[in-house]
Design a protein that fits this description.
Elements lengths: L12 H13 L23 E4 L5 E4 L13 E4 L5 E4 L33
Antiparallel strand pairs: 1-2, 3-4
Length: 120
């Protein structure tokens, strides 16, 4: 039962001392692989992205820091809770009436007349 890679820690000071001595004898190096059943990092914010800062320290970050809006095309709002909202400068749903400064239509036959059919 158990695994040779697990280091049991009892409840007494001697148990802890033995566990630390065993850990020290494992000789961890750059090629070592560590496996954790659970890991809690207390300096991070829950439900946020985890990134590394300039000193390679794990820190929390908001999604807003990772996306860039395109002026007059796609707008991005920081919701203040780590999430973002995408929008456009004007409504573009099927019932909207967007306004454009200019419009170029391609694929039309030269000399033809455009008209709206019964469906609009």
């Amino acid at each position: 039962m158990g695994s040779p890679n697990l280091i049991p820690v009892g409840v007494t000071l001697n148990d802890l001392r033995r566990a630390v001595q065993k850990l020290a004898s494992l000789r961890l190096n750059a090629d070592s692989t560590l496996t954790f059943t659970s890991l809690t990092l207390s300096d991070l914010t829950a439900s946020r992205l985890v990134v590394t800062d300039a000193t390679k320290t794990l820190v929390s970050d908001d999604l807003y820091s990772w996306v860039t809006e395109t002026s007059n095309q796609v707008l991005i709002a920081d919701d203040g809770d780590g999430t973002i909202t995408f929008s456009t400068p004007q409504n573009i749903h099927t019932g909207a009436s967007p306004t454009f400064a200019g419009l170029t239509l391609s694929g039309l036959t030269q000399g033809s007349v455009m008209f709206a059919g019964a469906g609009g």
